[in-house]
Amino acid sequence: MTALLFRDLKLAVRAGGGAMIGVLFFMTVVAVIPFGVGPDLNLLARIGPAILWIGALLAALLGLDRLFQAEREDGSLDLLLMQETPLVLTVLVKCLAHWLATGLPLVLASPLLSLFMNMDAAAIGATMLTLLVGTPAITFIGAAGAAIAVALPRGGLLVSILVLPLAIPVLIFGVSAVYAAVQEPAPFLPPFLFLTALTLVFAVIGPVAAAAALRASTD
Questions:
Q1: Are 54 and 29 in contact, with CB atoms under 8 Å apart?
Q2: How far apart are CA 106 and CA 17, in angstroms?
Q3: What is the mean pLDDT of the chain?
Q4: d(CA 179, CA 176)
Q5: Which pLDDT score is estimated for 201?
Q6: Which residues, in sequence order, are CB contacts of 83 under 8 Å at separation 6+?
Q7: What per-residue string of b and e applies to 81-108 under the rule 16 or more CB within 10 Å gives b?
Q8: What is the model's pLDDT at position 155?
């Protein structure tokens, strides 16, 4: 499993620019918003957490369609299905590698981008924490979509269509937790715990659904 983790990390970084493409897209989304809403710094600070979360969600979708594409192209997908290691565990490791290569850089880039949105320290810290907890859920959801679309043409579009509706609760609770952290007397813990629970639920459902879809795609 360790070898698979490092192999997938290398593939995720090399394929299409990996983390750099996601971070650049994230920066582009955040940079464009002020041109649309104007130079009102107070307004930017209010909508900043939502903008960062939307940007991270869209950036996290990049490359999800390639999660199982390399194995499909080189024929190793059949080997993964026949190996003794449970396929669900293999999918879980691949999700972890994908998040480390594409999701974690978004989390690390968020404090710098928060400054452009005129956010204070509490909002920056809450945004980074919620992205750290919430972005893995997007990867787990995306794994199921990528497995369904692995054998289909234009699979990337299908993955986005499948993932976005399921990721909306993650977006809602992520943004709600940030606003609760900076606005009194709204409590931070309830929405943050809901966000954590969603990630844990998708960590179970996503790999199981992806494994089932991969088996079905080879039948």
A1: yes
A2: 14
A3: 85
A4: 5
A5: 97
A6: 90
A7: eeeeeebbebbbbbbbbbbbbbbebbbe
A8: 62
Return the CA Rg of the chain: 18
Nearest to 71 by CA among 61, 84, 59, 80: 80
What is the residue whose two structure tokens read 């809450």? Answer: 126
Quick: pLDDT tens for 135-147.
Answer: 999 999 999 988 8
147-150 — which CB contacts under 8 Å span 24+ positions?
147/67, 147/68, 147/91, 147/209, 147/210, 147/211, 147/212, 147/213, 147/214, 147/217, 148/213, 148/217, 149/65, 150/68, 150/69, 150/72, 150/77, 150/213, 150/214, 150/217
Going by C-beta distance under 8 Å and a sequence separation of 6 or more, which residues neighbour residue 104? 19, 135
How many whole angstroms separate alpha carbon 170 and alpha carbon 203? 13
Secondary structure string (H, E, C) spanning 77-103? HHHHHHCCCCHHHHHHHHHHHHHHHHH
**Domains in the chain: boundaries:** 2-218
Q: What is the 8-class DSSP label of residue 15?
A: G
pLDDT in tens, 15-27: 655 667 888 999 9
